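Q: Got a minute? One more chain.
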Amino acid sequence: MTRARRIALAVALATPLAGCASAPALVTYGLAAPVERVSAPMRLPGLILVVEPTAIELYASERVVVREPGGALSYLPGVQYADQLPALVQTRLVETFENASRIGGVARPGDRVSPDFQLNSTIRTFWVDAETNLAVVEIAVRAVDESDGSVADAKVFSARVPVAAIDGRAAMLGLEVALAEAMLEIVRWAGTGRAGA
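A: Always. Here it is, folded:
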């Protein structure tokens, strides 16, 4: 191989690497769980096992979904979740139960417990809407009685929060607030058994 050809080959191999190195890093957001204490009648008494939500492929990643005017769906550039969205929602929902005063009454698969109810959920909507400037979260929840496998109760929880702009920071703040609202409603629905605030 001639010297000129070796130089050309080295340049060709280095060029893609240089392009990768110059790509901007994604800003990562964790969607913090609310810390509010909740007082609500105990609809689901005993230990609740929170399993990872199901979701269509669009949501089963770290990417943030934008609903464009006209209904097309895309991903918001420059930002990502701290984990795949279903796993992140599961973690934050467990934390919401714990923060709401049910720390001894909630678990996740792998905790080697015998639950009274299994909380199954589906992420139905989780996006920022560029036409309405809203962060929209919708989660369907089913409580399965572990004693007989029947559905003890089920409900769809949703929240819509205005966002100042369809950019990374504003969109993520809106989604965090919308998710927090939905999760607190799930906890109130399941109940904490606390009589007073």
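A: The first strand starts at residue 27 and ends at 29.
Q: Perfect, thanks.
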